[in-house]
Write a structure and sequence with these properties.
This protein has 301 residues and is of the alpha+beta class. It contains 7 helices and 15 strands.
Amino acid sequence: MERELIINSNGNSVEIALVEESKLVELHKEDTQNEYAVGDIYLGRIKQLVPGHNSAFVDIGYHKNAFLHYSDLGPQLKSLVKFVNIVRSDQNASPSLDNFKPEKDIDKGGKIVNVLKKDQTILVQVLKEPISTKGPRLTCELTIAGRYIVMVPFSDAISVSKKITNEDERKRLKFLLESIKPKNFGIIVRTASEGKSVSVLHEELKELLSKWNLMSEQLKTAEPPAKILTEVDKASVLLRDILNDSFSKIIVNDKQFYSNIKAYLKQIAPEKSGILKLHKAKLQIFQHYGINKQIKSSFGR
C-alpha cells in the first residue's frame, strides 16, 4: 500500500494529511503557537487540592491552572518526588538511577490529599493539550519516547507492543532490552523496533538517556513554573510513530519546515530521507493533492 504524508504549514498552524492510495485516512492539525504540547515536561506548583474530585490544579505557566487527577499520578509518584528533591537540593546529584532506591508505590485507590500538598513543587507531563475552556491535563507517569522504544523512569518492566506477534521476535527484543537498559528505567518496545539490531536500539536508548540527563540538569536551577523538556513538533511525532517502508512520499510546502523534517529524518530514518519533497507548484498544496475536496466531502460541504 502506497502511503504519503502531505503537510500544509500556514504560519500559525500545521495540517498533516495521511494519505493511502490517494485516499485521505487521517488529518491532524497543530497550533504552532501552542507551548503546552502533549509530551512536554514541566516543573509546576500545586495551587489547589480538590478532595471531592480527588484531583489537584497545578500552575505550569498557562493562563489557566492545569488539571491533575489521582489516577494520573502513577504508582511511582513517591519515587518521582524523591528524585526531584534530591536533584534540586544537591547541585552535584547524578541523574543516574543506578543507585537510586525507589519508594513504595502509592495506593491505587488512595486520596490525593494523602500524597500531595498545596504549594508543593511537582514534575509533570502534559497528557492533553489545553482547550478554550480548560487548561492542560497532566500526568506524573513520565515517559520519554523515541521511534523504537519508550523509556519509563522509576520502573524496571519491559513490555513489547502487541502488534509484534512473532513470539521469537518478542523474546529476542525483550532479551536485548534487558541486557542494555539501565537500572530503574522501564522500557516499552514499539512496533517499529521489530527486526532492529541491538546497536540501533542501544543508540536510541542512549539518546533518550541524554534527554533524561538534560532534564535532570535543568531541574537543578529551574523555578516553577518552568518547561523542563519539550516534545518534538506533531509532524515529527507522527513521523516517529508511523514511518515505515510503505511511505513513498512526504511532501511539505514550507522551506523551514522542510529543513526541520529533513534533519529529523536523518536522525530517525536516514534511509528514508530521499522521499521528502518540497511542494513548489502555484496551487495550494492541499488543493493540488485533492485533500481539500476530500475534507469537504467528508463533512458534507
